């Protein structure tokens, strides 16, 4: 849009040309007509803008080809009729006031004004109106230049919306990086707390055993909390399968009904045909539970929550930043208090909440945001104060895949048989923890720093366990250096970041195992056993 000064300058120039043309037409019968005015009249008549003139009672006297194109009426259809015919029904008083201003010699400029086309559709125009005077200086008519700005305003609105989405996404991405870093450090600490609590479990009795159990429970809850942070940061590994969204909704109905209370009615409307998506079933349940609980908290006096599934097509990214294609849609609506635009813009930020401190951590919706983004989808929110809120989640449709019902085999926790394991970990307590777990379960261990790699004795090392992110260089780089001396060396990585994030950043093949912190002794031993399994021909070192 032009700056106001620029718009006025353009309007002034257009008005001057229009007045010249209209004055020329008026003076045709009064001996003042010239060839220059004839040329100006021809130019004005072919203008892309609508050039319109009317008497002071609103009767149309000039209607150029631009007006015909914009409004759809031919000149012979409107000349002699009232200007009110192209105005909205409620614009009569405004027209009367404008004509009074013009009759007094005033000028009018409107950045936006609503008009009606011949087909009944509305449009927005910018308007400049000037009075027309006769040879005696008396105002006898009014002349308007009108420009259709409907598409221009629509484009600007779409551009603004896209910019706001971009800014919001950048802010959430920044928060996600922060959350991922915090979760990584927490996971190192939690690995220590969880495992040393387990070490003490057999040695503590009586009241102290109860205290230790509470510590262990708190650590488990903290582990769940960091898992939610990693989900928001899109750094939490998940096992995916093809799941029918209808089954998620119907299967969770009974649990959700008990969760929301007797004063809230839950209405589930699954689609009449399957709605398959490629996602983690547990994460989908988590999405639904978080959204329904959020809806419950927005209805303190009771209300209705409606959960629906269907399939939709996206043809362009004008409204939703997703590639064109077919998407499954999960909709959760409530009749609650709604929210302001300011709250809606911050809704998915971690730890942002409008609830009391004892009713939520502010991680529920940020977790949903992370899960949806990790699945290649999008979540949108519509909300009106006093009316309610609607969440719409779009996930890629998995039409060509069959829902899976099989689960992987149970993980076993074999003891070692004297195999030697080399451990590299920059966190002292985590390194000591890994060494202790392995030694107490039949393995021989050697812990070294990354600086001592060049001189490490690899003669009988069966497995290298190394953190992926080390102070000086990466675990994969250390493993590559050791494999120059022992090409068959098997490798197991550890990290507090997610599997997907690390594999992408360090180019770690899917077949190379990564044990996620915080791990328990059972989880570590099971992964070590898998890494040393004899059926893995050639060893995992070939894939590190």
UniProtKB/TrEMBL annotation:
Name assigned to this protein: histidine kinase
Cell compartment(s), UniProt: Cell membrane
One Pfam family this sequence matches: HisKA
Positions of modified residues (4-aspartylphosphate): 467
InterPro entries, per database record: CheY-like_superfamily, HATPase_C_sf, HATPase_dom, His_kinase_dom, HisK_dim/P_dom, HisK_dim/P_sf, PAS, PAS-assoc_C
Catalytic reactions on record: ATP + protein L-histidine = ADP + protein N-phospho-L-histidine
Domain PAC residue range list: 109-161
UniProt cross-references to SMART domains, sorted A to Z: HATPase_c, HisKA, PAS, REC
Record carries keyword Transmembrane: no
Residues covered by the Response regulatory domain: 420-532
Species per Swiss-Prot/TrEMBL record: Actinoplanes subglobosus
